[in-house]
Amino acid sequence: MAHQSIATAIIARGKKGEPTDPLLIRGDLADAGDLVAADLVFPLAKGLGTAANVSYYWRRLLELQERRAAEAPDEFATFSVTGALAKEEAALEEGIKRVATGWARLDRALGGGFALPSLNVIGAAPKSGKSTWAQIIAERHAEGGGFVYYLDLENGRRRFMRRMYAAMPGSAVPRWPWHSALTIGASSSRANRSETWNNAKTWVRESLAPGFLVEFTPPRDFAARVAAVRQRAGDRPLLVVLDSLQKLPMGLEDRRAGVDAWIRLLERLRHEHEAAVLLISEIKRDQKGQYTAHEAAFKESSGGIEYAADLALTLTRPTSNDAGEPFSTLCVELARDCDEDPRGKVAAYRPLFPFHGLEEVGLEKPAARTRNGTSPRPLAVATLGGAGCFDADA
After folding, report:
1. How many domains does the chain have?
2. Which of 55, 141, 230, 394 lies at 20 to 30 Å from 384 by C-alpha?
3. 337-340 contact pairs (CB < 8 A, 24+)
4. To 5 degrees, how large is the angle CA 333–CA 337–CA 342?
5. Torsion of CA 231, 233, 236, 238, to 10 degrees
6. pTM for this entry
7. Does residue 141 share a domain with residue 288?
């Protein structure tokens, strides 16, 4: 086969009236991709090239060099500002896209919600309501047509679903379908409880399920999981929620390095998949043993959160010795990609007992408790009803 290829190349050159010495024939075969035949030319010819063709050899070498130079990629082309503009032109013209959180006061402060892409971190003391707060955001995003991937390593399937059913919209407060006097009142009939439960299941299956994925154990390859989720989401805006940073798999010998490694990974994935990432973290105690909100309060971080996060929030709760309602206060510690500076206290959230929900209230000073533990006047609050708006002033 190789000999036949060499003969064919010689005949082709002869028909064109071109030289048919070994060097040129080998070049033709190499250009055609037949390296086996090309490497056989010189052993067959045994050095029978002619000096008369030196000028032709030189011209052909120049042509080959020019062709290779034209085909070789420019190693700096990917760094060109023109290339960057071509990739980002549409996004720059459209402006920053945002994922609404459903918390009206926070959305107003941020100019519409979490940016796309972005890494958003909320740090809070234990039992401050951070998991409930984040889950409500995820539910409203899915209900509004977005796509959610939720990795819950804190609460477990049963508690997660309990909160979800309790957050069904369309009532003054989140309602429980369970047959209990503590949920929807002792006067509620069995028929009403059954109807509430059926409505909650329908809402979850029809309104949330098409755009909501949740896992309760960490996937073996988290980056691959997010890539697959992005493909499933299609054009829908993607929200990735992780609860919580401290429960993610990492080495026990150096927790700080493990935390920072996860921050670096999430920092990369937000851009690769045009996602808004919401990461829940714990905050550490201060020297007095209190959970004090500040930008360096994130637990077990060497500074990676402060540098990598596009938005850093803290949610702090009062101690059991504090008077007044048990409000948790949301504060923007660090932010970028906002038209105005949103830093500072944004809103307060009151837990709903015995319901698994939150009410968003303004930062006006709440009324003091009376001796019997009740407020002398009711607060104007917004609850988990309607189409994702929880602002009493809206």
Report:
1. 2
2. 230
3. 337/96, 337/115, 337/118, 337/310, 338/110, 338/111, 339/111, 340/111
4. 40
5. -90
6. 0.70
7. yes
370 assigned to some structural domain: no
Same domain, 49 and 185: no
Residue-level pLDDT, tens digit, the chain, 394 residues: 676 777 788 778 777 777 777 777 788 888 888 888 778 777 766 645 555 555 565 566 567 667 766 766 766 777 778 778 877 888 888 889 999 999 999 999 999 999 999 999 999 888 888 999 999 999 999 999 999 999 999 999 999 998 888 777 644 334 444 334 334 444 456 777 778 788 888 999 999 999 999 999 999 999 999 999 999 999 999 999 999 998 999 987 888 889 999 999 999 999 999 999 999 998 766 555 555 555 556 766 656 788 899 999 999 887 666 666 778 999 999 999 888 999 999 999 988 776 678 889 888 644 443 334 443 333 333 333 333 333 333 3
Hey, what are 272's tokens? Answer: 């690769």
Q: Kindly state whether residues 62 and 101 are assigned to the same domain.
A: no
Q: Which domain holds residue 160?
A: 97-361
Q: How far apart (Å, rounded) are the C-alpha atoms in residues 152 and 213? A: 11
**Same domain assignment for residues 129 and 271:** yes
Complete DSSP assignment for 269-324? HHHHTTEEEEEEEEB---TTS-----TT-BTT-SSHHHHH-SEEEEEE---TTS-S
* Cβ neighbours around 290 below 10 Å, total: 10
Express the helix, strand and coil content of the chain in percent, nearest 5 each: 45, 15, 40
The Cα 363–Cα 376 span in angstroms is 18
DSSP letter assigned to residue 73: P
